[in-house]
C-alpha cells in the first residue's frame, strides 16, 4: 500500500532531522523558552559557535569575500560557521528544508585547495555559502517546494542558477522553506510546517521566500536566493529586516528551477537575493550576470551588468535625486509604524540633499486585481494537478489551528476563475495599457521634481503593516503592483516598531473590509520589535540604478538615524 | 442607413486615388502591359522621374544620408524623388495604403531650414524618407490595417516608433499594404486589393509586410518598416529580394502601433526594417535604439545598441566563423533554386575563409505547430471582433478568383481551437522547454565547429520556395520557427531563379500533403526571375551580431558571385 501524504510528509521531516549533525542539536536548556519572542541573540549565546565562528557569521558579504580571497579565512572555516548557525536558526524558526552539510564541507575544501594551489579564487563568490529557496534544483536532492508530491524525486541535474553560482565559487549547504503553492505571503506547508520570524516568533516570516527571510536575519546565511512573483522576496525581506531585490523579469536565470504555475508567463516569478547588506545584493547581481547566463538559459536577458547605470549616469550621478513618495496606495491605509518609517526616510533624504514629492498611485487596485485574475485564470488547475498524486489537500488559510478568523478558500492573492485564452489576451492587453499609463505618469513628474528629470525612484511601503501575526498577511498589493509593472524594487531596512513611537491611532473611514482588518490587527505590543523597511522602485530593467539609488537611501537613513 | 463594408472599402480606395497628384498618374502608354511580369525597370523608364531623381532614388541609405547631411542633396529633393517613385510603384504593384505627400514635403522643408540655419542635422536619419506598414499610427490618419472597420478612425496620436523616427530626422510619406488579419504570408485585403511582386507580377509579394516588400524593391522607398510575427518581414524580403531584419522581441518599440490579436503576448509581433542595403538595416537599428525608446514604451527593452556585439567580439572578431547550414527542415523539401542559393552561400563562405557544418533541425514541426496553436488559441475571436462592426467577411484564401485550388478556412498559418488559460499555459511551458532544448543543441555544436565556439550563426532558407504564384504561399514554417525561438534573423539576397540552372527535379517521397504541393507548384518558368535569399540566424538578443555576421555573408556572396 502506498504511503498517505501525511506519512510521506512525516518521513521527509524525519529525514531532515536526521540530516542535522547530532552534536549541533541544542539541548532544551540552550534553547530559548517558547515565550521568548526575539531569538536573534540566540545564535551568539547558545554556545554552539566559537567566538571566531560568531565573528565570521557576523561579517557582511563584501568583507567576507575579501578575507577568503586573501586566504585570511578559509572557505572551510566560513562554511562550517554558517552551517552551524543555519542549524541553530532551524531550531529557532524552522526555516530549512534540505540540509546537505557534507557536500558543503567537501566543496569548501576543494575551493581551499584550488586557492592554495593556484593563488587564484575560483570566481567572485569564492567560498561564499549561499542558501537557496526550496525551488532551485540541485542534482541528487529532492525539490519538495511545499508539496508532498515533490518528495522522493531527486533532481537529475542542477538548475542553471546553481551551475552559475558554483562557477562563480559559491558553496551551497541548505535550502529553505516555502508555503504550499508558493502563492502565499507567509510560509507554511504540510511537510516542514511553519517558519517563524526571528525578531518576534509570534509574527510571520513573510513569504513565499520566508525560510530565506528567517535564515538570513539570523545570519545563518550571508546571502540567500529567493523568488518573487508578487512580493515573495520583498515580503520576507521587509518582515525580517533585510535588503532584498526583486530584479526585472528574466535578468536572473530561472531555468530548471521548480516552480508553481509553469507556463504562466504573463507576470512571471523572478529570482533574486536577500541579504543583511546591500553590498551583498550587488555582489550577487554582478556575479550572476558575469557568468552570462543567457548562454545557458534562453529566457535570460542578454544584458550584462551595466556599470554606467549603477553609477547613476542617467540620474545626475546620484548627486541631487528626487524621490516620489507613495505614502498610501489608496486602498489599504498603512499602520502608524509604516508611516513613521516612510517619514524617517523622507527626512533622511532631505537631510542628505535630495528632494521628495508626493506620488499618486495610478490604477494600483486594478493592477493588483489584474495580477490576481491572471494567476487565477486556470481556476486552480495547476494547484490541483500538483496535489493530485498524493491527495494532499490545498491549504486554505495560514492561521494557526485554534485561532478564529476569516479563512480563505484559495491563497488570498489569487482570484481563481475559468478564463479562456481570448479572455487572458484581454487581461494582457489591459496590462500593457496600464504599464503605458504608468510610464507616462512617471515621465509627467518631470514637471514637479525640479531636477530636469522625472522622479529618480519611488519610495513605497512594502505592505500596510510590518510582519503581522501568523495567518494575517492577507495582502500583497504594495509589492504586486511592481511585479505587474515589472519595476525592479529593492527593500531597504529603516528601523523597528517601537511601542513609544507607534501608538495606535483613531480609526479612519474604512475603504473596504481588508482595510478594516489591517487597522484592527494593530497594537504596538503585538507588533513589538518588528522590522520596518521601505521599497525603492525604479523603471523596468533599471536594476543597476535601483541598487545605486538604494545605496544612497541606505546611507542617508543610517546617517540620519545616528544623529 | 450606414454604408456596407463594400461601400466603405470603395470610398477608401477612391480617397487613396484622390491623394495621388494627378500629374503623377502614368498614362496608359507609359504603363507596362499587363503581360509584362518584371516591372522593376519601369520607374526609371516611365519618364516621371528626372535623371537626378533616378540617381537619388537609386542611392542606398548610407550615401543618401551623407549627401543630405552635407547639404549636397536637400531633404526636399530627396523626398520629392521618393514620393514620385512610390507613386509609380503603386501604379505597378498596388503597394500603398495612406499617401500623404503634402505632409512629407512640409516636413522635408523644415529639415532643410533647420540644417541651413544650424549647420546641424536633426538626427541620424535626417531627411530620409521612410515608408511604414499600415500599422504604425500617425496622428490624423486612418490605420486601416486591412479591415474595413479601420476606416474613418484617424489616430489621435503617433505611435512611439513614428515619434522616434521623426526625432531622428526621418520624413514619412506613405504607408503600405497588408493582408486582412495580418496573419497571411501574402498581401490582399478588401479595401486596397492585392500587392504584386515587381520582379514578376504573377508572383506574390509575400506578407504580411508585402506592401513594403514591393515598394522597397522598386526603390519607391529607401527604407521600410514592417512587422514580423511568423515571418512577415522576412517573407516579403525574401520574395522581393531585400535585406530584412526580424529583431528580437521588444527591441524595436511597438507601442501605439495597431495590431491583430492584441494581448497575444506569447509570440509577439516585432517591428523591423526592410531595405535594399544591409547598411540601411543597421542605420535603422542604431537610430531607433539611439532614441532610447524604453523611456516611452514600457515593453521596449532597455538595451542600447551594442557596438561590441556588432564588432563580433564574441565571435572571434568575425575572422573565422563557422555556420550551421539548415538545408531542409525535414517537413517541406526546398525547391531546386532554393537549394542552389544555399549551396552558393556555402561556397562563398568557404571561399572567404569560413567553415560550415550541416545543421540538424530540432523539433521544427512542433515549434511551428506550437505557434499555430498559440495564435489560434482564441479560436478566431479576435478576427471576428475586428470584422463585426462592418460585417466584412473573413478572407479564406488568397488565391485569385477563378483559380481552382484548395482553400483555407482560416489563415493557413493558424490552427484555431478553443483553448482555456490552463491549456495555454501548457503550450507556454512546452515552448520554454523547446527553447531550452534548442539552445542546448546550439551549444553542443561546439564539438563540430573547430572554432572553440558553437556555430556563430545558422544559414537557412526563408521558405521552401521563392515567391510563389498568388495564393500559393501556404507555409511560414522556415521563418516561424525563429519567432518561437526568438532568434534574430536577417534575410540576405543571393541570386535569382534562372531557368537554365533551376530545372525541375524528380519527385521525392512526399512527407505530407503540403510537401507535395510545394513540389508540384514548381517550374522554372512559373518562378522566372524570382529573387533567392537566405536567412542568417543568431541567438536571442544577438541582433547586433546577426547584422555583423550578415555583412560577412553578404560580402562573401557578392565577392563569390563576381568571380
UniProtKB/TrEMBL annotation, chains A, B:
Keywords, in A-Z order: Hydrolase
Active-site positions on this chain: 133 (charge relay system), 208 (charge relay system), 232 (acyl-ester intermediate)
GO molecular function, one term: amidase activity
ATP-binding keyword on record: no
Domain Amidase: 77-547
Source domain of life: Eukaryota
Pfam families registered for this protein in UniProt: Amidase
EC number: 3.5.1.4
Catalyses which reaction(s): a monocarboxylic acid amide + H2O = a monocarboxylate + NH4(+)
Binding, substrate: 182, 208, 229-232
Family, similarity comment: Belongs to the amidase family.
PANTHER family tied to this protein: AMIDASE (EUROFUNG) (PTHR46072:SF2), AMIDASE-RELATED-RELATED (PTHR46072)
Protein's recorded name: amidase
Organism from which the protein derives: Exidia glandulosa HHB12029
Organism phylogeny: Eukaryota, Fungi, Dikarya, Basidiomycota, Agaricomycotina
Amino acid at each position: 500500500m502506498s504511503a498517505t501524504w501525511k506519512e510521506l510528509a512525516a518521513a521527509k521531516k524525519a529525514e531532515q532531522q536526521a540530516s542535522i549533525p547530532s552534536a549541533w542539536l541544542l539541548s532544551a536548556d540552550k534553547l530559548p523558552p517558547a515565550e521568548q519572542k526575539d531569538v536573534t541573540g540566540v545564535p551568539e549565546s547558545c554556545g554552539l559557535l566559537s567566538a571566531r565562528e560568531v565573528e565570521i557569521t557576523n561579517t557582511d558579504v563584501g568583507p567576507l569575500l575579501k578575507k577568503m580571497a586573501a586566504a585570511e579565512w578559509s572557505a572551510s572555516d566560513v562554511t562550517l560557521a554558517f552551517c552551524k548557525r543555519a542549524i541553530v536558526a532551524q531550531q529557532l524558526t524552522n526555516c530549512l528544508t534540505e540540509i546537505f552539510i557534507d557536500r558543503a564541507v567537501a566543496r569548501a575544501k576543494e575551493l581551499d585547495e584550488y586557492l592554495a594551489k593556484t593563488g587564484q579564487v575560483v570566481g567572485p563568490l569564492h567560498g561564499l555559502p549561499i542558501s537557496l529557496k526550496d525551488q532551485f534544483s540541485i542534482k541528487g536532492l529532492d525539490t519538495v517546494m511545499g508539496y508532498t508530491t515533490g518528495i522522493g524525486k531527486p533532481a537529475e541535474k542542477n538548475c542553471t542558477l546553481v551551475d552559475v553560482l558554483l562557477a562563480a565559487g559559491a558553496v551551497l549547504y541548505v535550502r529553505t522553506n516555502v508555503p504550499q503553492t508558493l502563492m502565499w505571503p507567509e510560509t507554511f506547508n504540510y511537510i516542514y510546517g511553519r517558519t517563524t520570524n526571528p525578531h518576534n516568533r509570534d509574527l510571520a516570516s513573510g513569504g513565499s521566500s520566508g525560510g530565506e527571510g528567517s535564515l538570513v536575519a539570523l545570519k545563518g546565511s550571508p546571502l540567500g536566493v529567493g523568488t518573487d512573483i508578487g512580493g515573495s522576496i520583498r515580503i520576507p525581506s521587509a518582515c525580517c529586516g533585510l535588503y532584498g531585490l526583486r530584479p526585472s523579469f528574466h535578468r536572473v536565470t530561472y531555468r530548471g528551477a521548480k516552480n508553481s504555475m509553469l507556463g504562466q508567463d504573463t507576470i512571471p516569478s523572478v529570482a533574486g537575493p536577500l541579504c543583511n547588506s546591500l553590498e551583498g545584493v550587488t555582489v550577487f547581481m554582478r556575479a550572476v550576470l558575469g557568468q552570462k547566463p543567457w548562454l545557458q538559459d534562453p529566457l535570460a536577458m542578454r544584458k550584462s551588468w551595466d556599470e554606467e547605470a549603477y553609477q547613476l549616469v542617467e540620474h545626475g550621478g546620484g548627486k541631487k535625486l528626487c524621490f516620489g513618495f507613495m505614502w498610501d496606495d489608496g486602498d489599504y491605509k498603512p499602520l502608524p509604524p509604516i508611516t513613521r518609517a516612510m517619514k524617517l526616510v523622507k527626512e533622511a533624504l532631505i537631510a542628505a540633499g535630495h528632494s521628495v514629492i508626493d506620488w499618486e498611485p495610478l490604477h494600483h487596485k486594478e493592477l493588483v486585481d489584474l495580477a490576481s485574475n491572471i494567476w487565477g485564470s486556470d481556476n486552480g488547475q495547476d494547484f490541483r494537478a500538483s496535489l493530485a498524486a498524493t491527495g494532499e489537500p490545498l491549504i486554505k488559510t495560514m492561521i494557526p489551528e485554534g485561532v478564529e478568523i476569516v479563512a480563505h478558500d484559495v491563497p488570498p492573492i489569487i482570484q481563481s476563475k475559468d478564463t479562456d485564452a481570448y479572455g487572458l489576451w484581454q487581461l494582457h492587453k489591459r496590462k500593457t495599457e496600464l504599464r503605458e499609463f504608468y510610464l507616462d505618469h512617471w515621465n509627467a513628474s518631470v514637471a514637479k521634481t525640479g531636477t530636469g528629470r522625472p522622479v529618480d525612484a519611488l519610495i513605497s511601503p512594502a505592505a500596510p503593516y510590518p510582519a503581522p501575526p501568523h495567518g494575517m498577511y492577507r495582502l500583497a498589493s504594495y509589492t504586486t503592483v511592481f511585479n505587474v509593472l515589472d519595476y525592479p524594487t529593492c527593500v531597504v531596512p529603516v528601523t523597528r516598531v517601537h511601542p513609544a513611537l507607534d501608538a495606535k491611532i483613531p480609526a479612519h473611514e474604512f475603504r473596504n473590509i481588508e482595510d478594516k482588518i489591517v487597522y484592527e490587527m494593530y497594537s504596538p505590543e503585538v507588533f513589538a520589535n518588528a522590522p520596518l523597511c521601505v521599497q525603492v522602485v525604479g523603471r523596468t530593467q533599471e536594476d543597476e540604478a535601483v541598487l545605486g539609488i538604494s545605496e544612497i537611501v541606505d546611507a542617508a537613513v543610517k546617517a540620519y538615524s545616528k544623529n
